[in-house]
Amino acid sequence: MNTQLIAYGLLAALAIAVLYAGITDLRRRKITNRLTGTIAIAAPLFWWASGLSPWPGIAVQLALATGWFAFGALLFKIRQMGGGDVKLFTALALWLEPSLFMMVVLLTMAVNGIATLIVLRGVRRARREGRTVDARATPYGVSAALAMLVMFAVRYGPGIGTVLSVSSSNFA
Questions:
Q1: Alpha helices, DSSP H, located in the chain
Q2: Which residue of 17, 89, 110, 118 sits 20 to 30 Å from the alpha carbon of 151, by its own alpha carbon?
């Protein structure tokens, strides 16, 4: 059994789940507990498939997720992040190595900042024209989905060809 191929399959499923979170966050301004829970519950399967050791590997992932949840709870309390966003990033912390997770967080914040500026510009223009607009905050789920796709392409993209060619030769 090629566990590396399973790990890439799980990462593809994670990318799809995060894209779905972005879409639902954009449409309904909600990321469901079912989705974030599923992402979190699938993390141990990814740990196994990627060969993560219990110590320090899994312990680091659990500490990262716990630390992010505490920080995210603070952001939620001061109304800078929604609860679904906090739970989504907590679940992602179970999957991504700390440096990659921090890159995704920083890239998400940058993308969300740019998106917010674009939205504010549109709101200002609409108000000058006398139109009523919905000026709710830009959803983090969309920015997280974009950041994850970029980071997956950078981190995992180059190796996928090797994994696929090795796994296809196993079937021959």
A1: 3-28, 33-49, 59-77, 83-95, 98-128, 140-155, 157-171
A2: 118
